[in-house]
């Protein structure tokens, strides 16, 4: 059954620019009750909040400055939303960076993976039907590099594979049947956002030629297509499902293919 966003309270992390900013706009078209935008970028976040609140004249958007990689900061933002906005129905863990350079990869791991786990677990516990919640949905943003060959960004890929595995595991029917919290994983292909300015931030700066050459093989999609895919994944996705949004094509549910790959390895593990 198609899920509706009507009157839902939604959190979007990394909402001040790129895909996240467009997701916020798309959510307003779906008549959500409120969107809490979490981002480190205060200037861009506040500007978008003010723009959207004056455009729609309904104060449905609240920007909260938050570094998602800082656990205390993240949980404080959740508390503000709980206390001042209301029950959280949907969380879109979208914040992420691409920076495999030796000085920054730990930050990348913390933002791209650790914060997704912390945010998901907090929301999952709050929404869990056997813990006093009424269910909900968490969409975790991964990348096609988690499913395809991406040798040039090994650390970024590792974080995105982590997001994929975490989401399919926590979203498994084993947990969903008790929690009522859908966990969905959406893998974006190359998308035209500020993140792509960082493709030179590699674990090996000597490899830069390889990645720029490699990138020429791919067509990047628009943020509009990526945001549309978020909405479609929300409406159609079963818990534990895996989706791809790439090359401006409609969002694709690739759960069967993903499950088949797992089955192949299961046949080795359990034989
Ligand atoms: N752009 C692509 O080609 C592409 C491809 C696959 C997956 N993705 C994923 O999509 C998501 C969105 O990326 P984007 O392309 O829109 O990038 P972007 O750089 O345009 O936006 C990322 C947003 O996250 C925010 N952010 C960064 N660190 C943060 C932190 N510690 N706490 C809170 N906010 C933080 C930034 O300020 C920014 O507003 C990321 O998870 C990214 O890995 C992007």
From TrEMBL:
<keyword id="KW-0560">Oxidoreductase</keyword>
<dbReference type="Pfam" id="PF00106">
    <property type="entry name" value="adh_short"/>
</dbReference>
<dbReference type="InterPro" id="IPR036291">
    <property type="entry name" value="NAD(P)-bd_dom_sf"/>
</dbReference>
<dbReference type="InterPro" id="IPR002347">
    <property type="entry name" value="SDR_fam"/>
</dbReference>
<protein>
    <recommendedName>
        <fullName>15-hydroxyprostaglandin dehydrogenase [NAD(+)]</fullName>
        <ecNumber>1.1.1.141</ecNumber>
        <ecNumber>1.1.1.232</ecNumber>
    </recommendedName>
</protein>
<comment type="function">
    <text>Catalyzes the NAD-dependent dehydrogenation (oxidation) of a broad array of hydroxylated polyunsaturated fatty acids (mainly eicosanoids and docosanoids, including prostaglandins, lipoxins and resolvins), yielding their corresponding keto (oxo) metabolites. Decreases the levels of the pro-proliferative prostaglandins such as prostaglandin E2 (whose activity is increased in cancer because of an increase in the expression of cyclooxygenase 2) and generates oxo-fatty acid products that can profoundly influence cell function by abrogating pro-inflammatory cytokine expression.</text>
</comment>
<comment type="similarity">
    <text>Belongs to the short-chain dehydrogenases/reductases (SDR) family.</text>
</comment>
């Amino acid at each position: 059954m198609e899920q509706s966003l009507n009157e839902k309270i939604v959190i979007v992390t990394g909402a001040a620019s790129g895909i996240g900013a467009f997701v916020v706009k798309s959510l307003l078209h779906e008549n959500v009750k409120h969107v809490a935008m979490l981002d480190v970028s205060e200037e861009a976040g506040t500007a978008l909040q003010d723009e959207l609140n004056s455009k729609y004249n309904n104060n449905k958007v609240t920007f909260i400055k938050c570094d998602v990689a800082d656990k205390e900061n993240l949980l404080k933002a959740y508390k503000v939303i709980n206390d001042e906005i209301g029950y959280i129905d949907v969380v879109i863990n979208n914040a992420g960076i691409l920076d495999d350079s030796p000085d920054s990869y730990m930050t990348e791991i913390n933002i791209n993976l650790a914060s997704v786990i912390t945010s998901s677990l907090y929301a999952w516990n709050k929404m869990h039907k056997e813990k006093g919640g009424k269910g909900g949905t968490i969409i975790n943003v991964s990348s096609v590099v988690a499913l395809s060959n991406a040798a040039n960004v090994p650390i970024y890929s590792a974080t995105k594979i982590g997001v994929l595995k975490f989401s399919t595991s926590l979203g498994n029917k084993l947990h969903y049947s008790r929690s009522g919290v859908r966990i969905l994983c959406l893998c974006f292909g190359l998308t035209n956002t500020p993140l792509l300015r960082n493709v030179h931030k590699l674990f090996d700066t000597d490899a830069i030629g390889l990645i720029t050459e490699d990138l020429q093989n791919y067509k990047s999609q628009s943020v509009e297509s990526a945001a549309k895919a978020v909405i479609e994944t929300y409406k159609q996705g079963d818990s534990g499902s895996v989706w791809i949004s790439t090359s401006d094509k409609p969002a694709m549910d690739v759960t069967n293919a993903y499950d088949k790959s797992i089955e192949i390895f299961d046949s080795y593990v359990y034989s």
